[in-house]
Amino acid sequence: MGRKTMKGWRPFAVLLLLLVVWEISVKATGIPEWLLPAPTKIGSAAMAGWVDFYPHLVSTVKLALIGFLIGSSIGLVTAIVLHLLPAIRDSIFPLLILSQNIPIIVLAPLLVIWFGFGLLPKLIVITLVCFFPLTVAALDGFRQTAPELKHYMNMAGATKNQLFWKLELPYSLPSVFSGLKISATYSVMGAVISEWLGAKQGIGVYMTLASSSFRTDRVFVAIFAIMLLSLIFFVIIILTERRLVRWTNERGEKQ
Q: Which label site among 176, 191, 209, 210 has the fewest CB atoms less than 10 Å from its CB?
């Protein structure tokens, strides 16, 4: 337990060291605040502007959560369909890979033209960045099911549906949660990008306004908020995985 606690504090120690080096370097070199503010200046800007920043933060969190739920659901359903129907997988999966080569920031203006400035294009952006990692991770998890267990269930007369729902899907849960971790962090990024499409509130809007007025300290406040939200989403998925997939931890401890 002590070793785990020590390892958990190491990233925070490194982060604190970086902030101290950043603070000393800025003050020692005399870099202008509009170019690179010190961490203390960024902290002061965050506290002073919290009342104005809070509505933007809440808006981004809501958008990211809705988009994550939709994108993850579509990603998992897509993985199940592609796994159960190999002919469709062979036809569609290469196209899904190609679709990921299109930068979202390039696709965003088209979504505005097609669907306007409402909620729909924003959710489409988040869905596009969330569904693919989960789809790939789930497909890998389905394929990595232990062959001896599949052989045993086939010998017992299990149908294809029984084989999937009682063996392949539970066995793939660690991989599914790995995809969820990636999708959760991407959802925040997707939400910020989608807010550049013409939203009235959100961290993306706050960042744009701060950048246009050369408030670099507020830009860093937005950046740190995005990083913190991504980390919180990531930790929530980890805690959920530990509660729902305990058998993998028990198996790892036995090994």
A: 209
Question: From CA 206, how far away is CA 195, in angstroms rounded?
Answer: 10
Residue 118 is classified by DSSP as: S
Look at residue 103 in the predicted model and tell me its pLDDT. 80
The residue ranking higher by pLDDT, 160 or 205, is 205
CATH match for 57-249 among 3.80.30.20, 1.10.3720.10, 3.30.565.10, 3.40.50.150: 1.10.3720.10
For the entire predicted model, the pTM comes to 0.85
The string over 28-46, giving b where at least 16 C-beta atoms fall within 10 Å of a residue's C-beta and e elsewhere, is eeeeeeeeebbbebbbebb
Res 3 pLDDT > 70: no
Domain assignments of the chain as residue spans, ordered by start: 57-249
Can you read off the two tokens belonging to residue 67? 């988009």
Q: Would you state the pLDDT for residue 254?
A: 39
CA angle 79, 189, 21 (to 5 degrees): 130
